[in-house]
Amino acid sequence: MSKYKLGLEYAKEQDQNDELSHYRNQFHIPKNKHGHELIYMTGNSLGLQPKSTKSYINQELEDWAKLGVEGHLEAKNPWLPYHEFLTESMANVVGAKPIEVIVMNTLTANLHFMMVSFYKPTKTRYKILIESDAFPSDKYAVESQLRHHGIDDKEGLILWKPRKNEELLRYEDLEAILETQGDEIALIMIGGVNYYTGQYFDLKRITELGHKNNCIVGFDCAHGAGNVELNLHDSGADFAVWCTYKYLNSGPGSLAGAFVHERHAYDKNLNRFTGWWSHNKQTRFNMRDEFDVLPGAEGWQLSNPPILSMAAIKASLDMFNEVGINKLNDKSKKLTGYFEFLLKQLGEDTIKIITPNNSEERGCQLSIQVKNANKNLHNKLTEAGVISDWREPDVIRCAPVPFYNSFQDVYNLVEKLKAILNE
Ligand SMILES: *Cc1c(COP(=O)(O)O)cnc(C)c1O
């Protein structure tokens, strides 16, 4: 017997018993033109705005107006060390030590900066392994790194592919690749949670496999950060990168995160691209000193950062810190399990869920393949007030986000889908 039940009453009851339900009220929920709240299922693409964000940004605007350049030291939250105010809570969200985490740049830029340091091809070991349906930006970034080192981007790229008629990746197949080509692979770079299937990989297992074969291992956690408990430190990964505008609710194009494992924190010989913000804070403003790199992930910063974007990140991280990623994760598992339960009632010959059914191997996103569907279905859903994401040829991605989505959201979404399919 399922632990979930059918019917609207059950959904209402679950919302009443949900100790996080009041957080929905702390976000702006987009509305249709009649003022009705939409069913927002795309927090995996752009997280919603916390109501507190405005006042965090206003604080910095006011201090800038009042203080000008003095704000670097005199602002309520001085701008000079502002990024440090984010470190601990960001480290908590991704399961890292503070020295391993930095908020800087944007995601694809960080991926490049990490590869500058950690992709060090030699004559015999120069290939990069990625998953075959990696996010396009990751694939382009990796290919351009290969070309940058004078390596043919087809020859140098190894794809970890799903088997025929399957969507998910199998670890046996990764093991097989490493067995035959492990000594040619310099870098393994995988999306920690695949953006398309929602498959959450075992980061530790992949890292151990990679390290056993002397490969560097990095992850793009754009779909993991704020969604699953990444435990980056324990995974042992060499580096990771992520953005903050998806599950981390920090606004369109906001700054990104990077993780460099503690074991690399004091390695001053690690090659990197640098700027004055990677230099020793004590002597930074002497302006003439020989470069002296900061320890840890901070040593990868280049520039003094955009404070307005960081203020939005701080607003969001303060909320994450208050709740804790583990509590969000508990709700996420319930909410996503309930979503899966309701979808299954529509009949497995109509709906196929690509995302793993094991709750340890996914976050809150379900990727739904609808038989004989085309973009028209997605358009109808949108008309019915559901904001979801369509991927050609026939997949709808929906992410019930534990911070602001409710059991009733999920119930209403499936009812609307059912109505459209029965037309
Ligand atoms: C969202 C996403 C990106 C987007 O990169 P930006 O540099 O932030 O534009 C890249 N990779 C993955 C895996 C993503 O999910």
Automatic annotation (TrEMBL):
Enzyme class of the recorded protein, top EC level: hydrolase
Pathway connected to this protein: Amino-acid degradation; L-kynurenine degradation; L-alanine and anthranilate from L-kynurenine: step 1/1; Cofactor biosynthesis; NAD(+) biosynthesis; quinolinate from L-kynurenine: step 2/3
Modified residues (N6-(pyridoxal phosphate)lysine): K246
Keyword Manganese: no
InterPro entries listed in its UniProt record: Kynureninase, PyrdxlP-dep_Trfase, PyrdxlP-dep_Trfase_major, PyrdxlP-dep_Trfase_small
Entry keyword set: Hydrolase, Pyridine nucleotide biosynthesis, Pyridoxal phosphate
Pfam family, one: KYNU_C
Binding site for pyridoxal 5'-phosphate: L107, T108, F135, P136, S137, D138, D220, H223, Y245, W276, N304
Organism domain of life: Bacteria
GO MF annotation, one: kynureninase activity
Required cofactor names: pyridoxal 5'-phosphate
Catalytic reactions on record: 3-hydroxy-L-kynurenine + H2O = 3-hydroxyanthranilate + L-alanine + H(+); L-kynurenine + H2O = anthranilate + L-alanine + H(+)
Entry EC number(s): 3.7.1.3
UniProt cross-references to HAMAP family, sorted A to Z: Kynureninase
Function: Catalyzes the cleavage of L-kynurenine (L-Kyn) and L-3-hydroxykynurenine (L-3OHKyn) into anthranilic acid (AA) and 3-hydroxyanthranilic acid (3-OHAA), respectively.
Similarity comment: family membership: Belongs to the kynureninase family.
Subunit: Homodimer.
Name of the protein: Kynureninase
Species the sequence originates in: Jejuia spongiicola
Gene coding for it: kynU
